[in-house]
Amino acid sequence: MEIERESSEQKKLVLVFFGSPSKSGTTAKLLNEFLNPLKENMRIETVNAYERNIAPCIACNVCAGEERCSQPDFDGIDALIREADVIVVATPVYNLSLPAPLKAIADRTQRYFAARFSLGIRNPVKKHKQAAALITCGSKDCEGAEIIARQLKLMFSVMNTSLTGTAVWTGTDFEAGSETFETARNSARELALAIACEL
Ligand SMILES: Cc1cc2nc3c(=O)[nH]c(=O)nc-3n(C[C@H](O)[C@H](O)[C@H](O)COP(=O)(O)O)c2cc1C
Questions:
Q1: Percentage of the chain surpassing pLDDT 90?
Q2: Of 71, 126, 142, 192, which shows the fewest CB atoms inside 10 Å?
Q3: Any ligand 1 atom below 6 A from CB of 180
């Protein structure tokens, strides 16, 4: 019993930020393709943005003076971020950006930006992480996915996190979406395997 617990605690932690309101929609489908090769050997924790309902950043600037956030609702997520080996952001594009509940989570990482640039802490998050972005777009172009990737890179730059790759499923709002899924699922699987190899 003790040995089993020890080995499961040693599993690498994959922290998923899930940004879709639909648990069985296109984003969930793409996420499953990514997680399937990892499930057996890794611990997976999911933060469902629509269920967690994290408050938006209120720009109170407390984090510019002390290494903390004035709003405690992000503390559990902060602990998971610090512990994680891999961060996955799985999200649909909404108005060329992140859906509002996930954008709120993204903005709450301001505490790491302030720790780096106001408090001068070189690595506010000690453990290095790889990251994957899994993005679904109703549109046949990937403009929204490119914008989200830029947002994530900025956010990750103060979280000791490298965006290893993205898997984008375009055209989900069209019939042709079933064809583009094949490409997206292959990218997601390859990305998962590439990340697993690096761990
Ligand atoms: C409020 C809203 C805004 C959207 N804005 C965009 C957009 O700017 N660009 C785009 O490609 N798709 C957009 N879409 C389409 C979704 O990204 C697409 O349907 C996605 O596959 C939904 O993911 P889900 O099945 O996980 O809910 C939007 C959808 C909604 C509901």
A1: 91
A2: 126
A3: no
